[in-house]
Amino acid sequence: MKAYLAAGIVILLSTAASAQAGPKEDLLAVDRAFARASLDKGYDQAYIANLATDGQTFTGAAPIKSKADAVARFNDPKRPHADPKVKITWVPDTGGVSADGTLGWTEGHSSHVGPGVSTTGHYMTVWVKENGAWKVRADIGNTDPKP
């Protein structure tokens, strides 16, 4: 009897945890996974994997105009790439998802740390559902003011 009671409690707790997770939590998890992939695979490749077909960035000297643009830039050895010695990290603080579940946003804090670089900043990413998966549609960030 105790085994059945324990199993029932585990099922109830699992169901309650699943019921609390929702679209916003799922999107925040995708953003955190993107950040981990940036460290594991390198920023350029993680960005390509997470960018929507029509995804854009709005920072840097030459913002990305689409996924095709990102692929061409990041796979061309003659073009500038993210320095693998500079670790780009970020953590979403919050976000939201539209009522129909097709559009979302995350925002949080970021850092760039490596040889000759040490900055922190704030970012905002707009996400869209593309073939059932969250992909970056628009990404913008800034650096924190110097103290």
Give a structural overview:
With 147 residues, the protein is α+β, with helices and mostly antiparallel strands. It has one domain: Nuclear Transport Factor 2, Chain: A (Roll). Helices cover 37% and strands 37% of the residues. The protein has four helices and five strands, in the order αααβαββββ. It has a five-stranded mixed sheet with strand order 1-5-4-3-2, with helices on one face. Helix 2 packs antiparallel against helix 3 and helix 3 packs antiparallel against helix 4. It is globular, with a radius of gyration of 19 Å.
Instruction: Quickly give the CATH architecture.
Output: Roll
What's the CATH topology label?
Answer: Nuclear Transport Factor 2, Chain: A
Count every beta strand, where a strand is a DSSP E run of 2 or more residues: 5
Helix-strand string: HHHEHEEEE
> What strand order characterises the main sheet?
1-5-4-3-2
Mean pLDDT: 87
DSSP helical segment count: 4
Give the quaternary arrangement of the chains: single chain
Radius of gyration: 19 Å
Amount of beta strand: 35-45%
The top-level CATH class is: Alpha Beta
Distance between the termini: 63 Å
Would you tell me the structural class of the helices and strands? Answer: alpha+beta
Helix content: 25-40%
